[in-house]
Design brief:
It is built from 3 helices and 25 strands. It has about 375 residues and is mainly β. It folds into 2 domains: about 140 residues, Immunoglobulins (Immunoglobulin-like), CATH 2.60.40.10; about 190 residues, no CATH class. The N terminus is likely disordered.
């Protein structure tokens, strides 16, 4: 059992492994008996959905309504048909709540994850003098999906990332590694301009940019001893390099997108650069914390003696997403002399949910 907050009161949650909501009656527990006289919830409504909470309400007949002392809520992750059938399944969550005025808030990061589909059903109950319950039939089962991280949650991630960002090093270029065929395709089919594509699902599960934001992936980290980009890359042997000022300048906005790791010591920070007023800028403005381009812990752009000077954080790996097309004529494409380290790729990488450095107290 665990305590959590629901409807402003202290509630106990009961986990009943493998128990179907339609079988949670006297045959399952000698302390619970079925009674048709209690009203059955219907017309269930879910509202005010966040990444780790929601409000629930329903209609019910007035008959015997005054006898209701508790609600039983059966909450389950919707089964993924493509999931591995041998993989351990999440234990269903049965919530026991005192009968509070509706709508009732259900909140708990330990059983609700962001951007996840759930099913829910409700039962009314009347606690007897001897401690047993008389219960109604279960309601219909409805489905809903939790939300992405809000700006509040992302700001918490941002603050954790700032702690480990480290000192700032100079940079002069952004770079993007791909296979030769990629650049050939861009020249032949896209008029020499790299096009934004939808971001993959790497990073935090609740990130509002995964699967939604369109952009072009760039790197900007440099080697400490040379001040230049590393010669190795996970993403391909051909590298497009572009002067930093052509992508990042006072005519662009900078946003914090995510902070994560992949079960290793390396930590990644996702930043988004968007030309002011562009569709990408409008998307980010509504969802992501905006950074001061001259003063932040990750990537800065400032003018010194009439020249733009750029710095990046030393102790995190920056993944920069630029939201507009980029013409290859603005930079150069050349083969790297190092290795293609496929094991370091973050494509669709899953975040380590146990890392205390890069997780916050909401669904992972």
């Amino acid at each position: 059992m665990k305590n959590y907050s629901i409807g402003g009161r202290s509630i106990v949650s009961v986990h009943v492994p493998g128990c179907s909501p339609h079988l949670w009656n006297k045959s399952q527990d000698s302390g619970i008996a079925e009674m048709e006289e209690l009203p059955v919830p219907h017309n269930i409504k879910i509202s005010n959905i966040t990444c780790d909470s929601f409000k629930i309400s329903w209609d019910m007949d007035s008959k015997s309504k005054d006898r209701i002392t508790h609600y039983f809520i059966d909450l389950n992750k919707k089964e993924n048909k493509n999931s591995n059938k041998f993989k351990h399944k999440d234990v269903p969550t049965k919530l026991v709540a005192k009968a509070v005025p509706l709508p009732m808030t259900v909140r708990g990061h330990w059983f609700l994850s962001p951007r996840t589909e759930y099913t829910v059903a409700v039962q009314t109950a009347s606690k007897q003098v001897d401690g047993d319950y008389v219960v109604s039939e279960w309601s219909e089962i409805i489905e809903f999906c939790t939300a992405d991280y809000s700006k509040v949650h992302l700001t918490q991630l941002l603050e954790k990332a700032e702690v480990i960002a480290g000192r700032m090093l100079k940079l002069s270029v952004f770079y993007r590694n791909q296979h030769k065929e990629y650049f050939d395709y861009i020249r032949e089919h896209h008029g020499n301009a790299m096009q934004p594509s939808v971001k993959d699902n790497s990073g935090s599960h609740g990130s509002p940019i995964s699967g939604k934001l369109e952009g072009i992936f760039f790197s900007c980290n440099t080697e400490f001893n040379t001040g230049k980009p590393p010669q190795d890359s996970p993403y391909g042997r051909y590298r497009f390099e572009i002067a930093a000022e052509k992508l990042f300048n006072p005519n662009t906005n900078l946003y914090f997108g995510d902070f994560y790791c992949m079960y290793t010591a390396y930590h990644y920070v996702i930043l988004v650069i968007a030309p002011v007023g562009s569709p990408g800028d409008e998307f980010c403005k509504q969802r992501l914390p905006q950074l001061n381009i001259k003063d932040n812990k990750f990537l800065t752009c400032d003018e010194e003696d009439g020249v733009m000077v750029y710095h990046h954080a030393q102790d995190v790996i920056l993944e920069v997403i630029y939201t507009d097309p980029v013409d290859l004529s603005l930079g150069t494409v050349a083969e790297i002399t190092g290795h293609q380290l496929m094991s370091l790729s973050t494509a669709n990488a899953k975040k380590d949910p146990s890392c205390k450095t890069c997780n916050i107290s909401v669904g992972r």
